[in-house]
TrEMBL record:
InterPro entries referenced in this protein's UniProt entry, alphabetically: Ald_DH/histidinol_DH, Ald_DH_C, Aldehyde_DH_dom, HotDog_dom_sf, MaoC-like_dom
Record organism: Cyprideis torosa
GO molecular function: 3-hydroxyacyl-CoA dehydratase activity; oxidoreductase activity, acting on the aldehyde or oxo group of donors, NAD or NADP as acceptor
Coiled coil: none
Protein name, entry field: Uncharacterized protein
Pfam family, one: MaoC_dehydratas
UniProt domain Aldehyde dehydrogenase: residue ranges: 2-201
Residues in MaoC-like domain copies: 240-345
Transmembrane annotation, as ranges: none
């Protein structure tokens, strides 16, 4: 589909490019196009081309008269590229209903992006549509309105064209498949294709039982108090569910002011009680990152031990405002253990431990949640 005023230019450019395509044995240097899969496919594509030719003009290619290099033309399932021109695709609609599984394309004009969307929908379901434009607004309009008839849309511009794998090459992480004629769903590609062949079982039971089976802490499961502190235990000694219950801390105005000064975060909700009209806050509120930092100060056992380092935070959420005068505590729970192999003979034997950080207030309501990732040394270094 081409903007109407560019039809002639695109037809000429395509003809020139196609004229450089040599058909023949693709094992030979300079030959880019081989044969179809079988002679049965040749017959089927030829039949589709003849049906399409009843409504639109062939502007490049010939069903019979084409050259084949380096091999006997009659010995293989060779087929010439065919380019059609359909000047009225809203009237001559065979192009939307006949899919020739071969090197066959049709040029169709559109006046507006709305017409392009309508023409796309007339195919009644596509695996993929490509739109080539440098105008992101135009691309947005097309994608939003054409998505319901496509399994995938490839947007190409000068920034990504060189690295593009092409119209028909989905990445493993992308949906491949489409609605309607495209199959009515997703094809067995990528991750979904792998999962389809795996045995997957849903487990139901009490959170304690599911925690024990999966070795991943489940909300609502028991959290026995860790003894000794989890930072004093090696990887093998830690048990999923073991929890450190920290001392409590009452947040003050001075805490908030000090954190604002140290961090440079002087957002109005933390420092200016006169600016809170029309907000959800009842007064000056503690920084979320102060709450998380203070929580670390409460759950960390600072002396040197098996914990080697903290290398990240996942799924951090601040779920309830904390005001001066509120008291917080932390439940610090072993959430999951992931074994690691030594990379070399000299490497430290260790594993990854995920800890669930649950910061709660005097009403036992959670005010912040996060998952802390740590590396923990093993007892056995051999």
């Amino acid at each position: 589909m081409v903007p109407e005023h560019l039809m002639e230019d695109v037809q000429i450019a395509l003809g020139q490019r196609l004229a450089k395509t040599t058909i023949g044995d693709p094992q030979q240097e300079g030959i880019r196009m081989g044969s179809l899969a079988t002679k049965i496919q040749v017959d089927r594509v030829r039949e589709s081309v003849e049906k399409l030719a009843a409504e639109q003009e062939i502007v490049y290619g010939d069903l019979d008269n084409f050259e084949v290099a380096g091999v006997d033309k009659k010995a293989g399932a060779f087929f010439s590229p065919i380019l059609f021109r359909n000047n009225n695709p809203f009237k001559n609609t065979s192009v939307h209903n006949i899919e020739a599984f071969g090197p066959v394309s049709s040029l169709m004009p559109y006046k507006t992006i709305e017409e392009a969307v309508e023409l796309t929908a007339m195919g009644k379901g596509s695996l993929v549509t490509s739109i080539v434009t440098a105008d992101d607004k135009l691309a947005t309009d097309f994608v939003v309105n054409a998505a319901h008839t496509n399994g995938r849309i490839l947007v190409l511009n000068e920034k990504c064209a060189r690295e593009s794998t092409g119209h028909g090459s989905p990445m493993p992480m992308l949906t491949h498949g489409g609605p309607g004629r495209a199959g009515g769903g997703e094809e067995m590609g990528g991750k979904r294709g792998v999962l389809h062949y795996l045995q997957r079982t849903a487990i139901q039971g009490h959170p304690d039982t599911i925690t024990k089976i999966t070795q991943q802490y489940q909300p609502g499961a028991s959290r026995p108090e860790a003894n000794p502190h989890v930072f004093r235990q090696h990887f093998e000694e830690l048990n999923v569910g073991d929890t450190v219950y920290t001392h409590k801390h009452t947040v003050t105005d001075a805490d908030i002011a000090s954190f604002a000064q140290v961090s440079g975060d002087n957002f109005y909700a933390h420092v200016d009680a006169t600016s809170l009209e029309g907000t959800i806050f009842e007064g000056k509120v503690a920084h979320g990152y102060y709450i998380l930092s203070k929580a670390a100060g409460m759950f960390v056992d600072p002396k040197k031990g098996p914990v080697l380092l903290n290398y990240g935070i996942d799924n951090c959420r601040f779920t309830k405002p904390v005001y001066p005068g509120m008291t917080i505590g932390v439940k610090f729970t072993v959430k999951e253990k992931i074994d690691q192999e030594k990379r070399s003979e000299d490497d430290i034997a260790k594993g990854i431990v995920k800890f669930n950080v649950d910061v709660y207030d005097e009403e036992n309501e959670t005010v912040a949640l996060a998952t802390i990732l740590t590396m923990v040394k093993k007892l056995e270094q051999n």
